[in-house]
Amino acid sequence: MNEKQEYGKFVYDFAAKVIDATGPRLPGSPEEAQGAAMIADELERISGKPSTVEKFTMAPRASIAAIPILGLLGIISFVLFYVSPIASLISTVFTLILAIVQVFTYSAKLDFLFKKEPSQNVYNTFEPLSGNVKRTIILSAHNDSSWCWQLSVKNPKTAIPKTVIGVVSVLAILVMSVIALCLGMYSFLYIGELATAEELSGVQIFSIVLYILPVLCLPGCYWLCQYVSWDKSKASPGAMDNLTGTGLYIALLKYFYAHPEKAPADCRIIAAGMGAEEASLKGAMDFVKRHKGDPSLMGERTYVLNLDSFRDRPYFSVIMGDAWLGSKFDPDLRDVALKVMNEMGLEPKIMLNPAGGCDSTPFIRAGVKTITLCAQNPTTTEYYHTFNDTIDGLDQTVLEDAFEMVLKIVDETAKMDEARHSD
What we know:
alpha/beta, Aminopeptidase, 2 domains, nine-stranded mixed beta sheet, two-stranded antiparallel ribbon, elongated
């Protein structure tokens, strides 16, 4: 077994070890804390110095896990439509505000409506042999795993269309509530009278149709209710997403401690596990907020390589931003990563994350150069965020290439920084 295979096996074995001990690690759960402790212990064993553990509180379900609540509110709005269009309008407006603020923009302004739970970030460092730190490279991945996306398990091809139909259904109830109010339909008691009338005007016929139309919105609202299961027993074990990323940064720290002479000169390496990524990037947000103003962690010469999900060989990719969150990541790091991937024959892709977000976004918003690296099929699959994300789905050769790739990107990033500041 060569060195590359050795470290690829380490990543695989560590993922299996954590899953065997903890199972799924939902944000804010005791299992997430247990997994974080295992990561901290492994980093401490490698480095010989205590890992830093930074605790924070957050609302786990005030994120994508709130989608079933949106579906339930949609059904409530449907019922209210037949009681009072005004009440239905208020309910649907609140539902859309909740969706925009918590699910689509991750703003957390309505977190106070949800129960809080503890989470934690953990990290450890490799210091350069020279003792002189000119630059910092943070290798990050998230500690937690996801709730089960039930629609993806049932049929990955229809999961997104059903979700879109659900959102459209809530919007449709809102529009119909507005129309009903404009027609003066403050109560639907007179619908029965219209149905028995001998002759009806066009407006009255439209009112009867409007009375029936909301029924078409029920399937979409139901699908939203089914989108995410809060049942811990159904949650994702998170082998790909994201014990592969976690195992990789631990393996890289292990490599640098085993071969300190091969580490980039004058470069501090930080191996960081972020908590509660699946709950709207709460760990990365806390890390950025906590260390704002610290030049060694958030300075001009800090670079963040976020490692998130390595499984599918045809899809070695550089993620250049989160469309939902309006973030765009560092183009220079993109070029460095693409250079390495092309030299390795990995046929890299450049992608903009179409939905949700990744831990690079809080860093780029804070002015820290970052990209996200992955090897994951970008389409909805039966193993992404489902109970099918098991250790059996991992390909060790992908992990071997991912280790070599990130190792080379670290070296090239340090060279890029040195060239920038050589004057």
